[in-house]
Design brief:
This is Glycosyl transferase family 2. The protein is of the alpha/beta class. It has helices at about 15-25, 40-50, 65-75, 100-105, 125-130, 130-135, 170, 180-190; strands at about 5-10, 25-30, 30-35, 55-60, 80-85, 90, 95, 110-115, 140-145, 150-155, 165, 195-200, 210.
Amino acid sequence: MSVPLIVLGNGRKDCITQALASIRANLSGVGSPLIVDDSGDAAYRDWLQAEFTAEVVPVAEDRAGYWRAMRRVWQAAAGCRWVFFWEEDFVLNQPLDAADLATVLDGHPYLTQVALVRQPWFHNERERGGLIEALEAQGNLFQQRTEDTYSWIEHRACFTGNPSLIPASTLRRPWPEGDWSESRFGRELFTDPKARGAYWGRRDDTPLVTHIGHERAGHDY
């Protein structure tokens, strides 16, 4: 089983180089990356193809912004059973088999995604000691689940664009246009009372991914 891998970037050569190196070193069970590029730079796209021997899909001729880029990702993922989605400013810190996440998604069709926990990044996350802890402080509930050798944490807090395995049931929903599209997409997902998101692993695990972007480089989130 090979899980399709889509990497979204917007021209940060240093970030995507580190991200793809970490994927090659640590992420098994995925195919060759398809890079959705929102740099708006044809020469940069040529570099991506040559450097990573990857298929590169431009969002548009000029830089288009986050919601348009996510719509391009959704188009590229059409017809897939699931897709491993990866933003270019994340590195994977330890070995991970995408097939394990796919097994959990297939067995639990109410899950909207299985995401990888990153380090606390925003002020409220650093203050609370973690990403999940900050979401809990806002009143969101998290439930640890374990079946066989698999562990994950279920919630109804949000949909995240951080690295995650996303099933077809989520990919079939249209991505909204305009500002705060990610938040609005998540709210729409959770109008289904049975829907749950998930983070992979256990509460006391170290973060699986590290966010390496120094600032939010995109626009029209």
